[in-house]
Amino acid sequence: MAKLKLAIYWAAGCGGCDVAILDTNEGLLKIAEIADIVLWPVATDHKYEEIEKMADGAIDICLINGGVRNSENEHMTKLLRAKSKIVVAMGACAHQGGIPGLANLFTKETVLNRAYRETPSTENPDGILPVQRFSAQEGELIIPEFYNTVLPTAAVVDVDYFMPGCPPAIHQVAAVVDIIAKGDLPPKGAVIGASDKTLCDECTRPKEDRKVKKFYRPHEIIFDNQKCFLDQGIICLGPATRGGCGNRCTVKSNMPCRGCYGPAPKVHDQGTKFLSALASVIDSNDPAEINSIVSQIADPVGTFYRFGLAASYLRRKRSNEKN
Ligand code: SF4
Ligand code: SF4
Q1: Does 159 lie in the same domain as 10?
Q2: Does 90 contact ligand 1 (Cβ within 6 A)?
Q3: Which residues span the domain enclosing 124?
Q4: Would you call 290 exposed, middle or buried from its count of C-beta atoms within 10 A (0-12, 13-18, 19+)?
Q5: 140 shares a domain with 222
Q6: What is the DSSP annotation of 132-191?
Q7: I want to staple 94 with a disulfide (CB 3.0 to 4.6 A). Which of 89, 130, 250, 270 is the partner?
Q8: Does 100 sit in the ligand 1 pocket, CB within 6 Å?
Q9: Are 65 and 151 in the same domain?
Q10: pTM here?
Q11: Do 54 and 158 share a structural domain?
């Protein structure tokens, strides 16, 4: 049987999804058995031009991790869509915009100022910012255009499957490779490498549905290592998040869920779903007291939409900038 052609690409992400693929260890041999890798910037030296010269649909499967934050991300995402039969948005950044999507709370000017002028570790006395074109003696240097808004992959191209997680759990990466090897692909648009339950449904920490008057960050309280975090007033996104990660935070690492597997099944907006779960644990009917309890929550947008702001109903903070 002819081997599949497989492309793996990183756009606006951190590289952790590529490491998750590497972490399948001997699973990589299985990938090599079934597929020839035609692009994988983190691990191979293929050039973009090689992809540009391919016929449309020549690549069987493309795993894209990272959303679209600049013109190179957009060009490669569109190019790989055209050249691939199947596109999988892999990881929270491609699926929902991920952590980089939180930059949608700011304009690109604010982001660039912060990164190049304001951070304590930056030495830039002349306040120089990157320019897209620069003429040097050796010729003109061009870098990608930095966009104002981070977009998930599906906002730019048609995506066949979504594989959530930051990064996807290793056992799920291996499971997806298996699905691909068997050609046993689910209906278009499906979320693969995850479960059809909420994380709470899969969590083994006993939940007593207790009401709380105060919310804590994990370092502000000595919490019970066995009981449900939310029952103890610690924000845990489990009620609004898709399961399938193997409880790697809540049970294996004794830390609350931050929501990287994206909205639970049948939920469109993870943050609003979590707000409704939060309302049900607050121990008060008095609007002023409820307001005071909720106002203790630090960084609400970064807490409720940590991985999904760019794909949420909010998408970004309002800005007059193009894109
Ligand atoms: S989903 Fe997480 S691990 Fe993957 S690229 Fe984004 S930040 Fe990195
Ligand atoms: S809220 Fe968190 S700790 Fe509680 S049951 Fe759900 S996933 Fe487990």
Answers
A1: yes
A2: no
A3: 108-146
A4: middle
A5: no
A6: SEEEETTEEEE-PPEEEEEE-GGGTS--SEEE-SSS--HHHHHHHHHHHHHT---STT-B
A7: 89
A8: no
A9: yes
A10: 0.94
A11: yes
70 occurs within a structural domain: yes
Of the residues 229, 278, 304, which should be mutated to test ligand 2's pocket, given the most ligand atoms within 8 Å of the CB?
A: 229
Q: Is residue 73 part of a domain?
A: yes
* Nearest ligand to residue 230 Cα: 2
Q: Is 139 domain-assigned?
A: yes
Is the C-beta atom of 166 inside 6 A of ligand 1? yes
- From the list 249, 171, 172, 164, the residue with the least C-alpha distance to 205 is 249
Which of 84, 119, 146 lies at the terminal end of a domain, its last residue? 146
Q: Are residues 60 and 168 in the same domain?
A: yes
Considering the domain boundaries, does residue 316 fall inside one?
no
pLDDT single digits (tens) 33-53: 889 999 999 999 999 999 999
In the DSSP assignment, the letter for residue 305 is: T
Q: What would the pLDDT profile of 203-245 be if each residue is shown by its tens digit? A: 999 999 789 999 999 999 999 999 999 999 999 999 999 999 9
**Six-digit token pair at 182?**
């068997």
